[in-house]
Amino acid sequence: MEEGKANVRAVDRALDILLCFTTGTDYAMTEIAEKVGLHKSTVHRMLATLEDKGFIERDPATDRYHLGIRVWELSAYLSTTDDPAVILQPEMERLRDKLGETVSLYVRDGLERIRIQAVQSNQPVRRVAPVGARLPLYAGASSKVLLAYADAYVREQIMNDPTWLASIDPDPYKQQLEEILNQGYATSFEERESGVAAISAPIINRNGRLAAALSLSGPASRLTLALMREYAPIIMESAKRMGTMMK
Q1: pLDDT in tens, 192-207
Q2: If DSSP codes are grouped into helix, strand and coil, which group holds residue 198?
Q3: Torsion angle, CA of 7/9/14/18, rounded to 10 degrees?
Q4: Domain count, the chain
């Protein structure tokens, strides 16, 4: 193998190891090897390098690995100027206070959606939405918004991907997406998670592009379809205000 390609492959493997920590806080070396599909000896060398550079730390008492201080040093320099999770949080809090349910912000990443911000409901029985969660695009109100308002070629590419859920008939689903475009919002009722309902509207930035999906979610016993339809104009107006804040 050419030296350049070998170096790129090593970087790729090291990044795969770091990305393991998007779904957990600490792992044993064997667990990391299983997650990235590499031999333990290779992972051991990669971890040693990452540890030497401060990106990974090993707990000698448990022999488990976690993210190192260098990651946090890098994050301190991450610009928040255009970060919707930061810019839109005050408006999300106002919406939560007005409607009383959990408010979330989602963006699309390939065949998944990622919750990049959440403002939890203050009610005793509530929908808890952890930030950073990755969810499939084929179910849920915000998933349908992210697909409906995506470019047509992107939508086709996603729905024709081999990993797309085979049980979903594409024709009725595409019709549903067209209806969402017409009404300006989407609803879901226990589509992905039992006992949970949600309503979502698109956040369109000042350039007319989809920036994110704004979602209100809560217990299906409380957030009924009739109530979601009543809330729809409020959520769409809030999403419209958010869009004016985005470049």
Answers
A1: 888 999 999 999 988 8
A2: strand
A3: 140
A4: 2
Longest dimension (CA), the chain: 62
Give the count of alpha carbons within 13 A of 5, CB side only. Answer: 2
pTM for this entry: 0.69
Instruction: Encode pLDDT of 110-139 as tens digits.
Output: 888 999 899 988 888 776 667 888 888 888
Residues 70 and 98 in one domain: no
Q: How many residues does the chain have?
A: 247
Facing residues of 103 across strands?
119, 216
CATH of the domain at 131: 3.30.450.40
Q: What secondary structure letter does DSSP report for 21? A: G
Between CA 227 and CA 244 the distance in angstroms is 27
Is the pLDDT score of 155 beyond 90?
A: no
Kind and range of the H or E element at 188? Answer: strand 186-189
CATH number for position 16: 1.10.10.10
